[in-house]
Design goal:
This protein is of the alpha+beta class and about 475 residues long. It folds into four domains: about 1-95, no CATH class; about 135-155 and about 380-450, conserved putative lor/sdh protein from methanococcus maripaludis s2 fold (Beta Barrel); about 160-170 and about 295-375, Beta Barrel (Elongation Factor Tu (Ef-tu), domain 3); about 180-290, no CATH class. It has helices at about 1-20, 30-40, 80-85, 90-95, 140-145, 210-220, 230-245, 250-255, 440-470, and strands spanning about 50, 60, 70-75, 95-100, 110, 120-125, 135, 150, 155, 160-170, 175-180, 185-190, 195, 200-205, 265, 270-275, 285, 290-295, 300-305, 320-325, 330-345, 350-355, 370-375, 380-385, 390, 395-405, 405-420, 420-425, 435. The strands form seven sheets. Strands 7, 9, 24, 25, 26, 27 and 28 form a seven-stranded antiparallel sheet that branches. Strands 10-19-22-21-20-23 form a six-stranded antiparallel barrel. A four-stranded antiparallel sheet has the order 11-18-16-13, with no helix packed on it. A hairpin with a 7-residue loop joins strand 4 (about 95-100) and strand 5 (about 110). Helix 1 (about 1-20) crosses helix 2 and helix 6 runs antiparallel to helix 7 (about 230-245). It is rod-shaped, with a radius of gyration of 47 Å. The relative contact order is 0.14. The model is unreliable at about 1-40 and about 80-90 (pLDDT under 50).
Length: about 475
């Protein structure tokens, strides 16, 4: 037993001569080295004993943790605490570059200082991995997680604004045939609702006493031998026929033949489709009664409802692709003609008019359509893939690939989105590489690293707090 005690004393003395022993198993200064150093100064009394691995646990007297390790004594000058966290020789020989914020904030100091909560700034030594906020991954982990990067480049952003709507007739291409004097329908051509007609095609024959009287008066004027004296009167007689809406070809035929027709042939004023036929043979038509309604549908309108949030992206003249639900594989191309100056207070949408060519009459009135408004202005902007953005709701960030497995989180300001890309207005430069795949895994590792660093730095601060409490007592 005496021999064992002698060997122990020799071992402790040798450890003091050689300095503190660095443990190769757990990468920390051995507890026994600190105990050996303590034996050289028996006059010193520890203030308290702290956890050997830096956890925020203290003891008034000697104690062991769950693994059997001795709690470390903390003295008044705190020299033993420094010896337990860093080799004394290394600390004295290495140069301190600066002091960083203990909470990981982007704040450094050239001299020792405390943060607003009283925590000491952490020294950064020459040769240490600089804590600049980057995340470093090994090549194997990069390959396993599937990290891929893409350089930031300039490209045109195509933003498609989608809006539903319906097909409507062009108001300028609708004609109504109505009598302006009391008339009787003598005969109707083989024209029904839905029939396609050509301009000048006969529709009906009508008899009107007012028209017959005006025609006779006009013929009497143009056949008179004293034309010079009644020139003004003759122009007035012709205008009366025009006011009664007598077709121009009927008036021209009267001037050519000098014969007043008993009935007037009414013809279609334009090419189009008969939308409405109210004329019936033998019927009496009062002034204002609509007998035919004809519309030209070779050009139609698509009236779509654009959401209020998208109004800033659209403008008159922009190209639009319209797809009818009846023709899912076909697109009709048009342009925005009018943006109506009113927002529906219930749906929060604005009405937009798109003019579409309809040569084969495939688009019919009240047909449902979906419009895609192409808002691209053609000017290339700095853009990244939308998968590269880490969006927390209040801030947007990307991971910049710095090379050699280092990735830097960086906040960015974004603009328009479209075509799988997002415009970057601030935070990145042309040519910088950003992570487009597995960036959430890198972000999670960055957050974990920051959390572990915070826990590790909290232990020394807690020790300072404990020592201060001891001094106060």
């Amino acid at each position: 037993m005496n021999t064992l005690r002698l060997l122990t004393a020799l071992a402790l003395t040798g450890s003091l001569a050689l300095g503190a022993i660095w443990s190769m198993n757990d990468g920390r200064w051995s507890v026994h080295a600190e105990v050996a150093a303590a034996t050289t100064d028996g006059a010193r009394t520890p203030l308290y004993y702290r956890d050997p691995i830096g956890a925020p646990f203290w003891s008034a007297g000697p104690k062991k943790d769950d693994r059997g390790w001795d709690y470390l004594p903390v003295y008044d000058d705190d020299q033993m605490t420094a010896a337990a966290t860093k080799p004394p020789q290394a600390a004295s020989s290495r140069k301190i570059l600066y002091y960083r914020n203990p909470m990981g904030l982007p704040d450094t100091s050239p001299v020792p200082k405390k943060d607003p909560m009283g925590m000491n700034y952490v020294p950064v030594y020459e040769g240490d991995d600089v804590d600049d906020g980057t995340v470093k991954l090994s090549p194997g982990k990069i390959q396993r997680t599937g990290v891929r990067s893409e350089p930031v480049a300039r490209r045109a952003i195509r933003v498609l604004v989608k809006a539903p709507g319906t097909i409507q007739l062009d108001e300028r291409r609708v004609s109504v045939i109505a009598m302006r004097a009391e008339s009787f329908v003598q005969k109707i051509a083989d024209v029904t609702t839905g029939t396609r007609v050509k301009a000048g095609q006969p529709l009906m024959e009508i008899y009107s006493s007012a028209v017959a009287s005006a025609a006779a008066e006009y013929l009497a004027t143009i056949t008179s031998k004293t034309v010079g004296g009644v020139e003004m009167y003759g122009r007035g007689s012709r205008q009366r026929l025009v006011n009664l809406d007598v077709p121009e070809q009927v008036i021209a035929e009267m001037e050519k033949t000098h014969v007043a027709p008993v009935t007037i042939h009414w013809s279609a004023p334009r090419d189009g489709i008969v939308l409405e036929r109210n004329a019936i043979e033998g019927m009496r038509a009062n002034p204002g009664d609509v007998l035919f309604r004809i519309a030209d549908i070779s050009l139609v309108w698509a009236l779509v409802d654009v959401a209020e949030r998208d109004l800033g992206n659209i403008a008159v003249g922009q190209s639009v692709a319209v797809r009818a639900r009846s023709f899912p594989g076909r697109a009709f191309t048009g342009k925005i003609a009018v943006i109506y100056p009113q927002v529906n207070r219930e749906t929060r949408t604005a009405r937009v008019r798109i003019e579409l060519a309809n040569p084969d009459a495939a688009l019919l009135p009240d047909m449902y359509v979906d419009a895609d408004v192409d808002t691209a202005d053609g000017a290339p902007v700095l853009a990244i893939q939308d998968s590269a953005v880490l969006d927390t709701g209040t801030r947007q960030a990307v991971l910049v690939d710095k090379g050699e497995g280092r990735f830097e989180p960086r906040e960015v300001k974004l603009g328009r989105r479209g075509g799988g890309y997002i415009e970057v207005r601030d935070g990145l430069a042309d040519g910088e590489a950003v992570v487009t795949s597995a960036n959430f895994l890198i972000d999670a590792e960055s957050n974990l690293k920051a959390a572990l660093r915070g826990f590790a730095e909290a232990a020394p601060q807690a020790s300072d707090a404990g020592r201060a409490m001891g001094e106060h007592k």
